[in-house]
Specification:
eight-stranded mixed β-sheet
Length: 548
């Protein structure tokens, strides 16, 4: 194979979300002579970005103070109305604001599309001279002779499923850097490799996740209340002793963003997160909002839920983790964009100082020290026991204990207890301990099937390419996962990628419909045998979210 072409930079950033773009902007703000580039696996900036989103503007205020007057789409809809509902099957109960810790207030926040915010940030970055390459996933980490990261290589294009080169074959390119920042989001494929190589999780709890599924709806004008924010907990997951919750955000242009998060530590292998979302929409206090409206978009993405105790070591020789690659989501607030942005800014400042001191390819420990003394740490420490309390004690008692813990930490009452996590893949129990769950058929009005939903995600992958969902052992799905766990991949995937065929005929086969993949990473996380490894497909593949 011929030697790959290479391009040198001061800093290469893997991932064009808000963390990576904030880092790029801050690098140029500190030193506009720095050569900075951003690689994004989506077909454009924002194509793979999916979030609620209600955004705390704290980091945005620090990065670009004039954003409200500078055309930022997030400024269109400030939060005006905040509700928290506890649902039973047929009723809702409003949780009084006085019972909730002040940090859960959405006063001063904004609701809108995180994808559109990313597009706006990209414009700002390019205006400062940052080079952005969408459609070029970082597929390989490059190391120097001392084991330090010296950059990344993009994936080859035009490779057939059998590994041969098609007529349009193009070899990937190497991007060399003094420092490389990894901003891949939750469960990044290269981040997994870095954590293993440098043992970055040696002194933290394992990361745990939720699966967030989201839809955009155009609703009847009389039902739209711009800036209204609703969060729910309880039903329907309470029926399977699982937990999570829903959200309803009234955003710009008469749209509502609705979504449902299922914590991926559920034990019952028959739980079907997509179907739980469809049930949730049928609740008598949610369905009327959607009736007469039209669903216009769909998507799904895994969310970090481990909190402060799951934040790994951030630095390593030649680079660092930022944003959701490291895991800075505040789970009770259902927010992570502001902490992700701030982490990118802190990393940028530390890397810029290191380069100014003629350093390269070393570990910039100043970044981690600064982050662990920043307002990110202050905020996340207040909520560090919220997720594990609910996971351990269930939705009702766990919520009470989590609330008490957050109140005590808010009031600076010492609580030495730091609760632990357990890996999501280890929580699934044998299928013979549970009864199958009979989910109602979709009505095509409020509830839908997975394939029609994936269509609305605009997901596309180039034909005839290597499968990016790799099985360590191709026999495991049929020999272990099917008889022991009833084939959970057919249910936990929100895009219908996995299915078992020939089961009734006594000749089961595991089928991977990789073309449906929306890059949520749930399979990589929840597979009980950890037999599925998600890697980047050919550049530009996956969903193309227009306004998510």
């Amino acid at each position: 194979m011929s030697e790959r072409e290479s391009m040198p930079y001061d800093v290469v950033i893997v991932g064009g979300g808000v963390a990576g773009l904030s880092a790029a902007i801050r690098l140029k703000q500190v030193n506009d002579a720095l050569e900075v580039c951003v690689l994004e696996k989506g077909s454009e900036i924002g194509a793979h970005i999916l979030s609620g989103a209600v955004v705390d503007p704290r980091a945005l205020d620090e990065l670009l103070p004039d954003w409200r007057e500078d055309g930022c789409p997030m400024a269109e809809v400030p939060v005006t109305d905040n509700w928290h509902w506890v649902l039973t099957k047929g009723k809702k109960f409003n949780m009084p604001h006085a019972m909730m810790p002040p940090l859960l207030s959405n006063k001063g926040n904004y609701t809108g599309s995180l994808g559109n915010l990313s597009r706006w940030l990209a414009e700002k970055a390019e205006g400062l001279g940052v080079e952005i390459f969408p459609g070029f996933p970082a597929a390989e980490i490059l190391y120097d002779d001392n084991g330090a990261v010296r950059g990344v290589a993009t994936g080859d294009m035009g490779v057939a499923a059998d590994g041969s080169h098609k007529a349009d074959y193009a070899q990937g390119m190497e991007l060399h850097a003094k420092y490389t920042l990894f901003a891949e989001g939750a469960r990044g494929s290269l981040t997994k490799q870095l954590k293993a190589k440098y043992d970055l999780e040696a002194n933290c709890e394992p990361q745990v996740y939720g699966l967030g599924i989201k839809e955009l709806w155009d609703i009847e004008p009389g039902k739209h209340v711009p800036g209204r924010v609703v969060h729910t907990q309880g039903w329907p997951l309470s029926e399977s002793e699982s937990w999570g919750g829903g959200f309803i955000y009234h955003q710009a242009n008469g749209q509502v963003a609705i979504g449902f998060v299922t914590a991926l530590d559920y034990k019952n292998p028959y739980v079907h997160p997509f179907e739980e979302f469809q049930r949730w929409k049928q609740h008598p206090d949610i369905r009327p909002l959607l009736e007469g409206g039209k669903r216009v978009s769909y998507g799904a993405r895994a969310i970090n839920e481990g909190g402060w105790q799951s934040v790994p070591k951030l630095g390593f020789p030649g680079g660092a983790l930022i944003g959701c690659a490291a895991g800075f989501v505040n789970v009770p607030r259902i927010k992570g964009s502001h902490t992700a942005m701030k982490s990118g800014m802190l990393a940028a400042e530390a890397m810029a100082d290191a380069i100014a001191a003629d350093r390269e390819h070393d570990e910039v420990s100043e970044y981690e020290a600064n982050l662990r003394s920043s307002w990110i740490a202050e905020e996340l420490k207040k909520v560090q026991n919220a997720e594990p309390a609910v996971a351990k004690f269930g939705g009702s008692l766990g919520t009470i204990l989590a609330g008490a813990d957050m109140w005590m930490r808010t009031l600076k009452i010492g609580l030495p207890v730091k609760m632990k996590h357990h890996r999501d893949c280890e929580q699934l129990q044998r299928a013979d301990l549970y009864k199958p769950i009979e989910y109602p058929k979709p009505d095509g009005v409020i509830s839908f099937d997975r394939l029609s939903s994936v269509f609305l995600s605009n997901t596309n992958h180039a034909e005839d390419q290597p499968c990016h969902l790799q099985l360590t052992d191709p026999d495991v799905p049929v020999k272990i996962n099917l008889p022991v766990f009833a084939g959970p991949a057919a249910r936990y995937c929100p895009a219908g990628v996995y299915e078992y065929v020939g089961v009734e005929e006594g000749d089961p086969k595991f089928v991977i419909n990789a073309q449906n993949c929306v890059h949520c990473k749930t399979c990589d996380i929840k597979d009980p045998t950890q037999n599925i490894n998600w890697v980047t497909p050919e550049g530009g593949g996956g969903p193309n979210y227009p306004n998510m």
